[in-house]
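Glucosamine (N-acetyl)-6-sulfatase
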Amino acid sequence: MGMTFSSAYVPSALCCPSRASILTGKYPHNHHVVNNTLEGNCSSKSWQKIQEPNTFPAILRSMCGYQTFFAGKYLNEYGAPDAGGLEHVPLGWSYWYALEKNSKYYNYTLSINGKARKHGENYSVDYLTDVLANVSLDFLDYKSNFEPFFMMIATPAPHSPWTAAPQYQKAFQNVFAPRNKNFNIHGTNKHWLIRQAKTPMTNSSIQFLDNAFRKRWQTLLSVDDLVEKLVKRLEFTGELNNTYIFY
């Protein structure tokens, strides 16, 4: 049915530090992931040794007897050779379907419980959001009914390159990026990075912005499909009323 946040807060506006905070419940100055690079502790050996054993899925697994399932984008540098490659499966996960490195929709590699599986560009078998939906449904079908379960599904959508499924590529043609009161206004009293922005923007820049915003919405239609399928499966198996869903 959708979700609207009237206010939203993140521990960091950077991808990897924010993901690390979700997993650990810590601020970046405590888990020490400071940017999206190995040098910044993103999926580094130090992260694996110190933080991964204490993520909340690891605790659910070791102390509470949960079956734990991960599918999607983990940390940006996951799968890097210097970080143990795709053979590395973080502690605490019973089932592991993790994307190598950063966001993609086609032509990517997954770590399937530590073994690499390459995907191409055939929509019916390779479109990542749908692949994540299918492996998640398989988990719900084949998991044990005698243990509680935890699933984390981390779709790269709506991250760039914003590749929508074929059936959604013409959606939202009349949608444009929000024109708030600070839209296209020079940030005179802002951070130096923001002050560097050229204003007013060129028509091509505005067109790019609107197109990116539209494509993000298009990619999220497949995420809607994923959520709907999972909710219906939980309802069908009689588990929906006993399951918490966090977004």
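thats it. Helices lie at 15-24, 28-31, 45-51, 56-64, 123-126, 128-142, 192-195, 203-236. The mean pLDDT is 96. bye
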